[in-house]
């Protein structure tokens, strides 16, 4: 990464520790207030403070995630964000928090969103394969390197369950609520007053976890015990965002979220997908909206806002 490509977004970047101005140099980045120094790692600005997420680098898993992220961006994020951001003046500024290998950032940029992706994990290594290389920055969601109210939309797919846990496990640490609250507060801080926060992950109240704890092509899902605090429920999210200055938390339709690519590779997986997809479609319908977040619903997509949405009903349906 050269200095010129890094400086495409200079006005929105600040020191993640003190929110002072950053000076992007050729070989390092320095905070003009607290003098903290940051480096470039494999060509990308490393503004990570607050810890890295050092999970194992499994090439097949990263490849699968990039494929799933392509479907997710095209089938779900882009149409959902277009609806939420209709009426935004200019190109909407979007933050992908915990963007992983970053395929979504490429696709959102191609769909005319002014998007930035951050991550603090091993998947940053995949950024060199992306087309929009100047849109990626190493950062931890607990200390975002952005000015207050910089974004029209901030989103993350399945980040919260992995915060406040031991490594890449399901074991929750004693301070997990503080860790999750720190991220929710940062998301709200960098969001414009009329902006939207979108979060997603498996529903804690559903008895199975359809994405974690198994290798990608494993046909059977993990049993999710009601006592586990690894996953989040609607009310878990609402508590975090209410404490972060949001005034509302809605659940959005989930149809189209999962392509179930690997599950369709085995007959057991295909059998499992049928009822799961039927439930996704059911709870996405207007009449069955009350079932989103209930124990029959495996997946949550939440919308947190600091301000009311005008005519919000149109956002809550397929
Ligand atoms: Zn500083």
Number of domains: 1
The number of E-state strands comes to 13
Helix content: 10-25%
Structural class: alpha/beta
Can you walk me through this structure?
By secondary structure, this protein is α/β, with parallel strands linked by helices. It has a single domain (43-315), classed as Rossmann fold (3-Layer(aba) Sandwich), CATH 3.40.50. Helix content is 25%, strand content 20%. The protein has six helices and 13 strands. The protein has helices spanning 3-6, 59-85, 103-110, 176-189, 234-242, 267-283; strands at residues 22-24, 28-31, 37-41, 44-46, 93-97, 114-119, 136-138, 151-157, 191-202, 208-209, 222-223, 248-251, 299-305. α2 (59-85) packs parallel to α3 (103-110). The chain is globular, with a radius of gyration of 19 Å. Residues 1-7 have low confidence and may be disordered. Bound molecules: zinc ion. Zinc ion (ZN) is lined by residues 15, 17-18, 20, 31, 33-34, 36.
Features:
318 residues; alpha/beta; Rossmann fold; 6 helices; globular; disordered N terminus; binds zinc ion
């Amino acid at each position: 990464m050269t200095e010129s490509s890094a400086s495409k977004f200079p006005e929105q970047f600040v020191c993640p520790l003190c929110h002072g101005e950053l000076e992007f140099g050729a070989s390092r980045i320095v905070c003009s207030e607290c003098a903290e120094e940051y480096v470039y790692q494999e060509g990308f600005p490393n503004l990570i403070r607050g810890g890295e997420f050092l999970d194992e680098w499994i090439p097949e898993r990263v490849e699968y995630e990039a494929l799933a992220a392509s479907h997710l961006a095209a089938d779900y994020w882009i149409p959902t964000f277009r609806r939420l951001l209709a009426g935004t003046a200019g190109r909407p500024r979007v933050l992908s928090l915990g963007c992983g290998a970053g395929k979504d950032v490429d696709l959102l940029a191609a769909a005319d969103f002014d998007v930035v992706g951050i991550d603090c994990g091993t998947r940053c290594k995949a950024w060199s394969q992306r087309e929009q290389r100047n849109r990626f920055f190493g950062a931890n969601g607990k200390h975002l390197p952005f000015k207050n109210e910089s974004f029209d939309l901030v989103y993350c797919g399945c980040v919260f369950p992995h915060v406040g846990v031991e490594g890449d496990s399901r074991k929750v640490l004693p301070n997990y609520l503080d860790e999750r609250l720190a991220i929710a507060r940062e998301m709200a801080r960098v969001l414009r007053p009329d902006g939207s926060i979108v979060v997603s992950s498996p529903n804690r109240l559903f008895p199975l976890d359809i994405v974690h704890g198994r290798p990608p092509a494993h046909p059977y899902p993990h049993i999710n015990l009601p006592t586990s605090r690894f996953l989040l429920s609607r009310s878990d999210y609402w508590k975090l965002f209410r404490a972060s200055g949001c005034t509302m938390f809605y659940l959005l339709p989930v149809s189209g979220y999962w392509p179930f690519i690997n599950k369709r590779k085995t007959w057991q997986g295909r059998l499992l997908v049928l009822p799961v997809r039927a439930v996704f479609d059911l709870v996405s319908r207007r009449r069955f909206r009350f079932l989103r977040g209930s124990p029959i619903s495996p997946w949550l997509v939440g919308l947190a806002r600091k301000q009311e949405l005008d005519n919000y009903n149109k956002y809550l349906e397929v």
